[in-house]
Amino acid sequence: MAEPAIVAESLTYRYGNLLAVDHISFTVERGEILGFLGPNGAGKSTTVKILTGQLRPLSGRAILLGIDVARYPKQVHARIGVCFEQPNLYEELSGVDNLRLFARLFNIHDIDIAGLLHRVGLDGRGDDLVGHYSKGMKQRLMIARALVNRPDILFLDEPTEGLDPTSAEAIRRVICEEQERGATVFLTTHDMYEADRLCNRVAFINSGRIVALDTPHNLKQQHGKRMVRAEVVGPDGSLLTREIILDQPETAHQIADLFQHERVVTLHSEEATLEDIFIQLTGRALV
Ligand code: ATP
Question: Is pTM, for the whole model, over 0.85?
Answer without folding.
Answer: yes
